[in-house]
Amino acid sequence: MAVEIVRSTCPHDCASACAVDVERLAPDRVGRLRGGRWNPYTDGMICAKVARYAERTHNPDRLTTPMVRDGPKGSGRFKPIGWDEALDRVADAFDAARRRHGPQALWPYHYAGTMGLVQRDGIQRFRALLGTSLQHDTFCTSLGDAGWAAGMGARKWGVDPREMADSDVIVLWGLNAVHTQVQIMGWVARARKARGARLVVVDPYRNPTAEKADMHLMPRPGTDAALACAVMHVLFRDGLADRTYLAAHTDDPEGLEAHLRDRTPAWAARITGLSADEIEAFAHLYGGTGRAYLRIGYGFTRSRNGAAAMHAVTCLPVVTGAWAHRGGGALWSMSGLYQLDTSLITADEHRDGTQRWLDQSRLGAILTGAASDALAAGPPVTAMLIQNTNPMVTAPDSTQVARGFAREDLFVCVHEQILTETARMADVVLPATTFLEHDDLYKGGGHTVLGIGLRVITPLGEARCNHDVLNALMARLDAPAHVANEMSARELLEETLRLSGLPEAEEIRDAGGHDCATSFDVHHFRKGFGHCDGRFRFHGAWRGAQAAVMPDLPDHLEIIEAADADHPFRLVTAPARQFLNSSFNETPTSRAQQGRPTVFVHPDDAQSLGVTDGAPVRLGNRRGSVTLHAQVFPGLPTGTVVVESLWPAAAFPEGLGINALVGADPGPPNGGAVFHDTAVWLRPAGVEAKAEAPESWAAAPPVSPPPALETA
Ligand code: SF4
After folding, report:
1. Helix (H) / strand (E) containing 553
2. Residues 115 and 107 sit within 8 Å (Cβ to Cβ)
3. Do 303 and 407 have their domain in common?
4. If you measure from the C-alpha of residue 434 to the centroid of ligand 1, how many angstroms do you get, rounded to a whole number?
5. Which of 22, 301, 385, 462 lies at a CB distance of 3.0 to 4.6 Å from 108, suitable for a disulfide?
């Protein structure tokens, strides 16, 4: 068969949702993937890990048949069974759980291993129709979303990233684009070539993006709001604030200016570790042009004060009035731009209002009963269906997560592509398709183009897509009738497009995606921000259970897990170039190119600890510890260490990954994982740690199931 090129869209947890051209070598085999030039934003660029996707699709470790556990939990011993038997076993176990404790004892758990709306979000329909526990999604955007909405309001979009070509200054704040959204660098290059644009990177270590910057600001982790406040202080002080814009579009510019009067560069320098001169220089560069494009990343928001930091950062283009200019303004996420009717996929209207929401980041506490509020006063979780995520590695406080999954009374079904750490803890494992083997549609969080990915090859072995598995289980569990449960994934995709007023899938695919970009006025909020009065709120409109914690006006919030005498370092678990969360950490090339689990340590810190370059070291806190290798690296502040992540758990001698050190307490105001907000100690491997009291559980005896609350 001649090689065919088939258009598709990258499904991974990445805002770029790149257009890809897939080489189809045979009906069941792909070759190389290349960037499709037909998406006007991604424009032919994809990352290297997806370019070699054949290695992932045809990985000899792919699961090809359903399996049932044939040994102790976590042993990795399974035996193959047929699909009907597997689905019957899972349905029987789910039915037993709901008969004993009610339907909310079942917790379907998912995340963003695929960003396709059909295959990712169908599990919401499963929850709604069966009345199970719901999932509060807190891994990724909840802290950033809260901070964005506090000032900007409910409209979650921003300036079209193609406008970067018209920018004089581009600021990447908490965003390592080279590792995570490589297309941004293409647009930076255009702006540099066309206009001599300057690139500023705000990030706590000198990563490959920072290396390309004209100005790199390296604040201590968790101090970004202090930097933003001091920049605004300078903007007001030096006549760089656009007072006309402020009067027309904001709630209280005079109140903000007064509040910032003592948030000087010297004040921020003490908090951030930057020099006052660096802050002054950044403020003047940023405020010196209206064409300043602020591309806001996720990194700095994954902190206990991350929502407050996001609010402070979103104030910057408002103070300068950059929103009014072409090439100016900001982008955090475009996800609110796509006006899609996904009601058939999610069946949200079937939720009955009594179903509890469980925080995905508190999985360990939920399964072990370690925190009394984690179960939201409901029954224990005794059965789980897991799709698109590997929480044994990706969830915080992973030692506690592992203890929870080890519960003998917990039934777990994992639907996966390979035998991940989480799948190893399952009772039944079901083989899942990759995006090349099923149909879906994709929003680009970092741009405006809706993408389509239709099946390119036949499923590997007996792999089935998420949609088919959910429907098969719902049929066995006598779920209420729903039209989507009778559809194929392709039919559901087409009907979703039709309900959204969009063309059919093939038409969109062949046209190079559907560009949802709208007018300059909408993207630049010229008709008002997302509050009812259309004004940006410097007085943050905070919502959530912990709203009282939040600052009224933008400010540095001292609620991080601060370093102390016993834990003198702040740990950032930054994204690795060759992995995407835990995806791709199974492919040999990604692992080989990434090297080994490594902690970056400043030379001064290394010297004071007696750590040499390449030496094995131990990193820990009261939650646990891991062993990895040191890389002495001058490109970060003293007192900060960085571990590019996420390595497989087995890459660490302890058998648990870096998230064993990360707390699972919900960041205010409305929950959120605090992946980059961790205090740790560091010492050469072999040097005994002094005994630490466990935070809550680390030295506790084996866990018992949470007390059963009988429900009607
Ligand atoms: S950059 Fe992101 S969206 Fe693009 S191919 Fe890589 S993982 Fe996929």
Report:
1. none
2. no
3. no
4. 15
5. 385
Q: How many domains does the chain have?
A: 3
Which letter does DSSP use for residue 676 in this model? T
Residue 627 maps to a domain: yes
Q: Are residues 298 and 199 part of one domain?
A: yes
Q: Are 374 and 365 in contact (CB under 8 A)?
A: yes
In a domain, 414, yes or no: yes
Residue 679, token pair as written in the block? 């205090």
In which residue are the tokens 């705000």 written?
202
Reported as a single tens digit per residue, the pLDDT across 289-337 is 999 999 999 999 999 999 999 999 999 999 999 999 999 999 999 999 9
Ligand 1 midpoint to CA 432 (Å): 20
Output the six-digit token pair for 261.
Answer: 């009067």
For the segment 470-479, the average pLDDT, to the nearest whole number, is 98
Which of 131, 106, 137 is CA-nearest to residue 350? 131
Query: Does 696 score more than 80 pLDDT?
Result: no
Q: Cα(540)–Cα(60) distance, rounded to whole angstroms?
A: 51
Reading the block at residue 347, the tokens are 């069946």
Q: Where are the beta strands (DSSP E) in 548-663?
A: 569-572, 598-601, 616-621, 624-632, 640-643
Maximum Cα interatomic distance, the chain, rounded to a whole number of Å = 72
- Sorting pLDDT into bands at 50, 70 and 90, what band is 688? low
Position 543 scores a pLDDT of 96
Mean pLDDT of the chain: 95
Record the tokens describing residue 437, joined without a space.
């083997």
Parent domain of 107 = 67-132+353-435+460-484
pLDDT of 704 strictly over 90:
no
CB within 6 Å of ligand 1 — which residues? 10, 12, 14, 16-18, 46-47, 50, 181-182, 580
User: Across the strands, what pairs with 164?
Assistant: none
Classify residue 262: in a domain, yes or no.
yes
pLDDT of residue 370: 87
- CA 606 to ligand 1 center in whole angstroms: 35
The reported pTM is: 0.95
Same domain (yes/no): 306, 428: no
**Nearest alpha-carbon partner for 203 in 546, 709, 561, 642:** 642
Q: Which residues contact 461 (CB under 8 A, 6 or more apart)?
A: 62, 63, 64, 65, 431
Write the CB contacts of 403 (distance below 8 Å, at least 6 apart in sequence).
Answer: 364, 367, 368, 697, 702, 703
Q: Which atom of ligand 1 is nearest to the CA of 17?
A: 3
pLDDT of 75 above 70: yes
**Residues 473 and 589 grouped into a single domain:** no
Count other Cβ atoms within 10 Å, centred on residue 515: 16
Ligand 1 pocket mutation pick from 20, 50, 185, 449 by most atoms within 8 angstroms of CB: 50
* Ligand 1 midpoint to CA 356 (Å): 34
Q: Give pLDDT, residue 1.
A: 78
pLDDT of residue 689: 60
Within-domain flag for 266: yes
